[in-house]
Amino acid sequence: MNTQNLIIYKFTELYHILKELDLDLNFKITFVDNKNSLNEKVKNLHNHLIISNKNLDTGNQFVLDNLPINILKLVEKINIEFLKVHFNSQSKVKVDNYSIDLNSREMLKNNTTLKLTEKEINTIIYLSKSKIPVSIHELQDKVWSYQSDIETHTVETHIYRLRKKILNTFDDNGFIVSKKNGYQIK
User: Is the peptide bond prior to 133 cis by the omega test (within 30 degrees of 0)?
Assistant: First the structure.
């Protein structure tokens, strides 16, 4: 698992307390005292949590405004927040210019959201992992768990409807392309 980075923003007392316990904690602790430094710091970090005593309207933040707090309780809350960050980061998948939230089953682009079914999500994820067109029989087997000798148009129908939803919502007619030997995400 990659390093958990705890960034303490403008909260000097907390930084000094946690720095004393540094060897007993399983996260790297950093202190930041201005917004520019904070933005620079988090730009390249994937697994981070920002603690401050005020809401910064930023992601991965834990506001500690209910003091005093037992240090063990604080460490427990920090660990829980890191678990939430990890869970949320696993639920986001980037496909082409879109972001797919596996938890809410939504596809997002430029503040536009499209609700998807589980099969639609599974189809997009499966297609996105392939560099070559995926055959209908492979989709039947891997996404729908159908035997390849069964004659059905389920895959074609689902892909047609999915492409129509994406076209109507995002005005994107080329997200899933049809090739002579299957389907592919451009």
Answer: no
Instruction: Residue 143: give the domain boundaries.
Output: 96-185
- Please, what sign has the CA dihedral across residues 33, 34, 35, 37? negative
80 and 103 co-located in one domain = no
CATH code: domain of residue 108 = 1.10.10.10
Residue where the block lists tokens 């998948």:
93
In angstroms, the Cα distances linking 92 to 5, 48, 82, 127, 128 are 20, 16, 16, 16, 14
Q: Provide the residue count of the chain.
A: 186
Helices (H), 44-153: 71-91, 118-128, 136-142
Task: Please report where in the chains the tokens 């995926």 appear, as a residue.
Answer: 134
C-alpha 82/C-alpha 79 separation (Å) is: 5
pLDDT tens-digit map of 48-105: 899 998 888 787 899 998 888 999 999 999 999 988 888 777 788 888 889 998 888 9
Contacts of residue 64, Cβ cutoff 8 Å, sequence gap at least 6: 11, 14, 51, 52, 53, 74
Nearest to residue 49, comparing CAs of 75, 24, 71?
75
The structure's pTM equals 0.59
The pLDDT of residue 2 is 66
DSSP states of 31-55 = EE-SHHHHHHHHHT-SSEEEEESS-
